[in-house]
Amino acid sequence: MIQIQPEVKRVEELRQLLQQASYAYYVLDAPIMEDAVYDQLYRELQQMETQYPELIAPDSPTQRVGERPATQFTSVRHNIPLYSLENAFNVDELRVWEQRWRRQAPTVASVEYVCELKIDGSAIALTYQNGILVRGATRGDGVMGEDITQNVRTIRSIPLRLNLAGLENLEKIEVRGEAFLPLEVFKQINEERQKAGEQLFANPRNAAAGTLRQLDSRIVARRRLDFFAYTLHIPGMDDASISNTQWEALELLQKMGFRVNPNHKLCGSLPEVAEYYKYWDTERLNLPYMTDGVVVKLNLFKLQEQLGFTQKFPRWAVALKYPAEEAPTRVENIAVNVGRTGALTPLAEMRPVQLAGTTVSRATLHNSDRIAQLDIRIGDTVIVRKAGEIIPEVVRVLQELRPSDTEPFVMPTHCPVCGQLVVRESGEAVTRCVNASCAAILKGSIEHWVSRDALDIKGVGEKLVHQLVDKGSVHSVADLYELTKEKLCELERMGEKSAQKLVDAIAQSKNQPWSRVLYGLGIRHVGSVNAQLLTQKYFTVEQLTAAKQSDIEGIYGIGAEIAQSVYQWFRIDANQTLIERLRVAGLQFAAAEETTISDGNQKLAGKTFVVTGTLPTLKRDEAKALIQKAGGKVTDSVSKKTDYLVVGEDAGSKLEKAQALGIIQLNEAQLLEILES
Ligand SMILES: [Zn+2]
Question: Is a pLDDT exceeding 60 seen at residue 239?
Answer without folding.
Answer: no
